[in-house]
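Late entry, evening session. Most of the bench is empty. Finally got around to the prediction I had been postponing all week. Sequence below, unchanged from the version circulated by S.P.
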Amino acid sequence: MRRGVILLAFAGCIVASPAYANDPAAAQALFDQAQALMRDGRWSDACPKLEESQRLDPGDGTVLHLAACREHEGKIATAWALYQDALVAAKRSNNKSRARVAQERVDFLGPRLPRLRLKVAFADKKLPAFKVMRDDTAVGPALWGDAFPIDPGAHTITATADGYKKWSRAIDISASPDDTTVDVPLLDAEPNEKAGGTPSGSKRPETPREDDRGDTQRTVGIALGAIGAAGLAAGGIFGVLALSKNSDADEHCAPPDYTRCSAAGVDAGKQSETFGTVSTIAFVAGGAFALGGLALYFTAPSHTRMGIAPAIAPGSIGLVGRF
C-alpha cells in the first residue's frame, strides 16, 4: 500500500485547492499510470503524474517514488529535497524500510549537488519592488550571497525593479558538485520618453557627491569651532572674575597670612577658586572643540567655493573667510 498521510509538504508541491483536495481515486489512478511509465523509462512523463497524485492525496510511498523519478530525470537537487521529505514521512509512520531507502539517497546525493550563488549589487537591494528569479521561482534576500542546491541543466536568472530595465542571464549548471556564482549588476534605469529620458518610477539611490560630503564636514567643523570659541570666551570671562574676587579677598585678609581673613574675605577667596576652576575647564574644552573644528574644516574634500572658519590667536577670536 502506498497510502499513509504525510504531514510535511514536499518541495515543489502545489498547495491543493479545496475543489481538488482529498481525491484518493484520481490519485491512485495517476500513481498507477506513473509506475507504468517508469517501468518504460519515461521519467519526464511519469514525474508530473506522481506530483499531481501527491497533491491530490499525499502518501508516504508517493513522495518516495516521486523523489526517485526526479533523480532519474536528472533533477538531483529536487530529488534530494524530496528524499528528505520522504524520510520525515517514513519516520512519522514508523516505516523503517522506506526511512532506510530515503536516508541512503539523501546521504548519496548530498555531496554531489551543484550549487548556485547569487551576488546582488548593494544598490539594487534598495530599488522599488526589486526581485530576483531563478527560472519561475523567486530567490528571496535570505539566499543572496549564499550557495544553495540547484538542479543541473539550463537556467535563467532575472532581476527586475519598478522603473528599471529587466536584467537576465542564461546559465548552464553541470552535474558536478561545483559552485556557480552569478553577479547581479546594478540595474539600468528605464527611460521615460514623456519625461525626456528621465527614469520612470522611483529614482536610483544616489551616491553622495564628494562636494556634498565636503560641505557637510565643513559645516560640522564650523559648528565645533563656534562652540570652541564660545568656550574660550567663557574661560576668559571667568578668569577675569577669578582675578577680581582674588583682589577682594586680599582687601579683607592680611597677606601673606591668609588665615587672618574676615568672613567677606573667606567668601571672596572661595568664589575666586570656583571661578578659576570654571575658567580652566572652559579654556580646555573650548580649545579642544576649536582645534577639532579647524581639523574637520581644513581636511574636508575641497572645491571652489566660499567658506568661513573660526580663527583663534592669542588675545583674539574671530572668523576667517576662504574663496
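Two things to note before I forget:
Helices lie at 24-39, 43-56, 60-73, 76-92, 96-109, 210-251, 263-299.
Residues 151 and 267 are 89 Å apart (CA to CA).
Will write this up properly tomorrow.
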